[in-house]
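User:
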Amino acid sequence: MSQSVPPPGNPFADGPATPYPAAPAPAPARDNVVLGLLAALVAALVAAGAYGAIGGAIEREIGYAAVGVGFLVGFVAAKAGGRSPALPVIAAVLSIGAVYLGQIVAIAVVLSELAGGSVTDILLEDFGTLIDVWKEAADVMTYVFLAIAAVTAFAGAKKADA
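Assistant: Predicted structure:
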């Protein structure tokens, strides 16, 4: 009894060896703090308008909306700006400003419905009055929403960066 001997060479190689395809190029580095700052600023302004419009339409504040504002600002900052350690802090500050401005816009929406004027006119002509009304109406929950937005923006920037 003898064992058969396999033929010489590799039986699985049918023809010339083909090299593996080239690996894709690595993603470009996105460490542009200025771009992240500008993108976060635009996102903060858009989110403030949406937050104010929603809050004014239903005449109350929603905690989930503050979470959304914060996450949007942080996410956009990190995606546009990269891994800079300054961007989560910048996003947190901008999200506080966005929620504050959104609360001012919500007050303007409510006042425009009561007075029958334009929201834009109230914002442009009576901004000082709106700030005074905000100060009078501010309670603990107002500041909690500001804090929620800041924490969510910081966390959103860190998650988007990972």
